[in-house]
Design goal:
Blueprint: E1 3-8, E2 11-16, H1 21-27, E3 51-54, E4 61-62, E5 73-75, H2 79-94, H3 103-107, H4 114-122, H5 126-134, H6 140-146, H7 151-154, H8 166-179, E6 195-199, H9 203-213, E7 218-222, H10 231-234, H11 243-254, E8 259-261, H12 272-277, E9 282-285, E10 291-292, E11 305-307, H13 308-316, E12 326-330, H14 334-345, E13 350-354, H15 366-374, E14 378-380, E15 383-391, E16 394-408, E17 414-418, E18 424-427, E19 430-433, E20 437-438, E21 475-477, H16 480-483, H17 488-508, H18 549-552, H19 565-572, H20 587-594, E22 619-621, H21 631-639, E23 645-649, H22 653-656, E24 661-665, H23 674-678, E25 684-686, E26 698-703, E27 712-718, E28 721-727, H24 739-743, E29 758-761, E30 764-767, H25 770-788, E31 795-797, H26 803-817, E32 822-824
Parallel strand pairs: 1-5, 6-7, 6-9, 7-8, 9-21, 11-19, 12-13, 12-19, 13-14, 31-32
Antiparallel strand pairs: 1-2, 3-4, 3-5, 10-20, 15-16, 16-17, 16-18, 22-25, 23-24, 26-27, 27-28, 29-30
Helix pairs in contact: 4-5, 4-8, 4-19, 5-8, 6-8, 8-19, 9-17, 13-14
Bound molecules: flavin-adenine dinucleotide (FAD), iron/sulfur cluster (SF4) (3 copies) and FE2/S2 (inorganic) cluster.
GO molecular function: 4 iron, 4 sulfur cluster binding; metal ion binding; oxidoreductase activity
Keywords: 4Fe-4S, Iron, Iron-sulfur, Metal-binding, Oxidoreductase, Repeat
Pfam families: Fer2_4, Fer4_20, Fer4_7, Molybdop_Fe4S4, Molybdopterin, Pyr_redox_2
Length: about 850
């Protein structure tokens, strides 16, 4: 074979004259995407995603089939090539129906892999579930208690009966590990020598510290309060979030080597300039929203009226304020709810909440409203306070106007309009006001380091919401300070993402937001094609176990309880595993991300067009995800030579366009799974015992244990559990496997698997040591030979033994024992 020289992307490449452009590029590490190409088979040229520009050619050419030529000038990345690939992918995806990832994952502000952790729980592995959760947040136990779970709103199970109890499953995994003293946080890598100061030790600051340490950067938290936790400690009351549990969760973060300076207030005890002079390379600012809005009505300053935040902070700090017999709480968000329910536990006999709209618009979590009412809290709706009433300078009641609801305002909620003459007086002996919080950041203007900063209307430095980097490059902002009051999961997600941006800033000097990973979706919950839910049996949701109301209000004891293992597994088993099983490996998705397919404007199918084909015992076919690349069919007919795979022409296709064919498996199938291994999309997927994940899998190469061929396997595992097996593209099998090698791996976890020698005693088998087992074999062989001669015994050697072992085995039987009764298990 002769060599030729060509240029690929301005790089001179010398390669064999028989090679294709694709092979020449691969040899130099130049990436060209492929979908239909199988390097062991004749090029099919079905997908054309591998096109490149060759000087002198009027059309783009498929690099998987075009041979190299002397002097050829090739471009794999010209604007025309990139646009063409994007166009081809868009066409394929327009004829596609699926959810790359589940809607719960998409809706969660922290993008937790909910489907993945639920599948771990269902398979009886809560520790792995926790490990997966901690990839995205260090607050599993906290969120498992207080997250308002927006993910559950989009849960597809709502279309069958009720959402999966995602929040409580998270708590179960966290509490299961905590009860057993198991921690899953990995050890941090070696120190990078970079230092980050974090101002504010709430969930945003703590999450930033956690993920910065996991990148090897030094992290120091400064906080104005005596203890860390922010609103988790000083806002959310003990009965919802026990502080002993919070302490444990925070300690796990600090144990990564985070430095802490409490009782240090930014703007008073230190400045950005002083931190810079201490050598911090980056600063994360997450001081939350700790100031309360005022009602703006007369009498608000008098004794007996207190902002809810102040009430809760004093309570959490061990300095509980006095509580009246009859308390009125103005406002109905989560903060007001916490204050109202705390008052009951502190001895108030009557607690009334005033809210200007109706229950349907209340910002508090519906479950909390339910629990509060069950505890005896009264909610007066459609009420706008107009005046605080006092007697001798002390609060004695509030006057309010009744409202009617009119057309929606800018918030999208109906506008409450007071009804003239509807003044009503509500007598009480204490008022707690909770109508929202903000960040009091007036002192920012005094910061010398911010003198050139551009400020937003809220008075914070302008900040990129995707990278969290402010207009001062070393300064990053996140959490409630950046967004206004939100949730723990949002603050934690901000902290994590800001940490990843700071990592880029500290290592590359530049911060850019990552390309958005492509995700196709079947649609919003209400729009999803009903066909997806046909035949699913209704199974009621396990609701959060909770103490009876009468017991709850007696103390600050934690009100909600945790699922038992059986309940958690059962609840997890309700999950529909909505996300595609191929999400982490699908090349269509990977390329759609690389080439920037516009997922927001993609006119993909919104109805399922083809039935799912489920009759094969090991493989499920979803023709709605097939791109007609023919890799399955070619592999089956040309490599396995089985002709068991068909692409059947469909009638409907003509009207709508490709795929013109749908995949199908016929009776000749020997279940080698080569089609499955070749399919570049989720059109073919493996049936699994238990929920299928999917998870990012770790690959371990090994030799197949079944027979003596020595096929090379890639065991694909998550934690210690093998969930898939693939062939390795190396001798002797070159990616190919038989049914046993590919699918028969569940014996690993069988309770009946022999792991130690067993000796029969009567009808029972008893565990024995290897010495005991060998002694017994030797004595029985000797006994039988002595009684009946050497031909009364036989030996069977293992096909997986090396040649030397097999040789010794036959020598033992022929030369030592004196019989030819020796064989090999591959022939039995
Ligand atoms: C009463 C209440 C109940 C809530 N309930 C829920 C709930 O059930 N579920 C939910 O998801 N969310 C809830 N939230 C919201 C949630 O707690 C917040 O969104 C979240 O804590 C914001 O995190 P953060 O880190 O941005 O700020 P914070 O948690 O507010 O932390 C800010 C930190 O900065 C420190 N700090 C402030 N000023 C300075 C300064 N000048 N110098 C140094 N340090 C400073 C503070 O001491 C604090 O530690 C609730 C909030 C409140 C107030
Ligand atoms: S086959 Fe690929 S593109 Fe289609 S839903 Fe699955 S992961 Fe997404
Ligand atoms: S059924 Fe499972 S995967 Fe689907 S949205 Fe609900 S929790 Fe997520
Ligand atoms: S089923 Fe066959 S034709 Fe369809 S995408 Fe998979 S490998 Fe290609
Ligand atoms: S045409 Fe080359 S990979 Fe499909």
């Amino acid at each position: 074979m002769s060599k030729v020289s060509l240029t690929i992307n301005d790089q001179t490449v010398s390669t064999e004259s028989e090679n294709t452009i694709l092979q020449a590029a691969a040899q130099e590490g130049i990436f060209i995407p492929t979908l239909c190409h199988n390097p062991l088979l004749k090029p099919e040229e079905a997908c054309r995603i591998c096109v490149v520009e060759v000087e002198g050619e009027d059309k783009l050419i498929a690099s998987c089939s075009a041979k190299v030529k002397e002097g050829m000038i090739v471009r794999t990345d010209s604007p025309l090539v990139l646009e063409t690939r994007k166009g081809l992918l868009t066409l394929m995806l327009e004829q596609h129906y699926g959810d790359c990832v589940s809607p719960c994952h998409m809706t969660c502000p922290g993008h937790l892999d909910i489907q993945g952790y639920i599948a771990h729980i269902e398979r009886g592995d809560p520790i792995e579930a926790l490990r997966l959760i901690k990839e995205k947040t260090p607050f599993a136990a906290t969120l498992g208690r207080v997250c308002p779970h927006p993910c559950e709103i989009e849960c597809r199970r709502n279309r069958v009966e009720n959402a999966i109890n995602i929040k409580d499953l998270k708590r179960f995994a966290a509490d299961y590990a905590a009860e057993r003293g198991v921690r899953v946080t990995p050890a941090p890598p070696p120190d990078t020598g970079k230092k980050v100061a974090i101002i504010g030790g709430g969930p945003a600051g703590l999450a930033a510290a956690y993920y910065l340490r996991l990148k090897g950067h030094a992290a120091t938290i400064y906080d104005a309060m005596p203890k860390l936790g922010g609103m988790l400690r000083y806002g959310i009351p003990e009965y919802r979030l026990p502080k002993a549990m919070l302490d444990q969760e925070i300690q796990e973060i600090l144990d990564l080597g985070v430095n802490v300076n409490t009782n240090k207030k930014f703007g008073k005890d230190f400045t950005l300039a002083s931190l810079r002079s201490e050598g911090y390379d980056a600063i994360f600012l997450a001081i939350g929203a700790w100031s309360s809005y005022k009602l703006g009505i007369s009498g608000e300053e008098i004794s007996g009226v207190m902002p809810a935040i102040e009430f809760l902070i004093r309570n959490a700090s061990g300095d509980p304020p006095p509580v009246g017999k009859k308390v009125v709480v103005i406002g109905n968000g989560n903060t007001g709810m916490d204050a109202a329910r705390s008052c009951l536990r502190m001895g108030a006999q009557e607690v009334i909440m005033l809210y200007r709209r109706t229950k349907a618009e209340m910002p508090a979590n519906p479950q909390e409203i339910h629990d509060a009412e069950e505890e005896g809290i009264k909610i007066h709706i459609l009420a706008t306070p107009t005046r605080i009433i006092s007697k001798e300078g002390v609060f004695s009641g509030v006057e309010y106007l009744k409202n009617e609801l009119k057309a929606a305002d800018s918030s999208g909620r109906p506008r409450p309009v007071p009804i003239e003459g509807s003044e009503t007086i509500l007598e009480a002996d204490q008022a707690i006001v909770s109508i929202g919080q903000f960040s009091d950041v007036d002192f920012f203007k005094q910061e010398t380091e911010l003198k050139d900063a551009a400020f937003t209307k809220k008075g914070i430095p302008e900040t990129d919401i995707n990278t969290f980097q402010s207009c001062i490059p070393y300064l990053f902002l996140g959490g409630d300070l950046l967004r206004g009051p939100r949730t723990v999961i949002q603050a934690s997600a901000d902290g994590r993402e800001a940490a990843l941006s700071m990592h880029k800033y500290l290592t590359d000097g530049v911060v850019s937001s990552d390309a958005r990973t492509f995700n196709i979706t079947k649609g919003k919950l209400k729009d999803v094609d009903q066909v997806n839910f046909e035949g699913i049996l209704s199974r009621p949701r396990y609701e959060t176990p909770i103490l009876p109301a009468a017991q709850r209000i007696k103390s600050f004891e934690e009100a909600e309880l945790v699922f038992t293992e059986a309940q958690a597994k059962d609840e997890a088993a309700r999950c529909l595993s909505c996300g595609c099983q191929d999400a982490f490996e699908c090349r269509l998705r990977e390329y759609a991300t690389i080439y920037g397919v516009d997922q927001d404007n993609l006119k993909s199918w919104k109805k399922r067009k083809y039935d799912i084909i489920d009759k094969h015992p090991l493989i499920t076919i979803d023709p709605n995800k097939c791109i007609t690349c023919r890799k399955c069919l070619n592999g089956c007919s040309q490599y396995q030579v089985q002709y068991a795979f068909d692409l059947l022409q469909t009638e409907a296709a003509e009207k709508i366009g490709p795929p013109v064919y749908t995949p199908s498996i016929n009776d000749r199938c020997v279940s080698c799974g080569y089609c499955l291994a070749n399919c570049p999309t989720g059109a073919l997927s493996e049936k699994s015992e238990g929920l299928p994940g999917p998870w990012k899998l770790e690959k371990v190469r090994t030799t197949c244990p079944y027979c003596g061929v020595g096929c090379q396997l890639s065991l694909e595992k998550v934690g210690d559990r093998v969930v898939k097996v693939n062939g390795v593209n190396a001798p002797p099998n070159y990616g190919h496997l038989c049914v046993k090698g590919r699918f028969g791996f569940n014996f690993i976890y069988s309770d009946e698997r022999l792991k130690v020698p067993l000796i029969r005693e009567g009808d029972e088998f008893k565990e024995a040591t290897w010495d005991e087992a060998f002694d017994l074999i030797v004595s029985k062989l000797k006994e039988t030979i002595a009684k009946h001669g050497p031909d009364a015994v036989a030996g069977v050697s293992c096909a997986r033994s090396i040649n030397e072992d097999s040789y010794q085995m036959q020598k033992l039987f022929r030369a030592v024992i004196g019989t030819n009764n020796i064989d090999h298990c591959a022939r039995t």
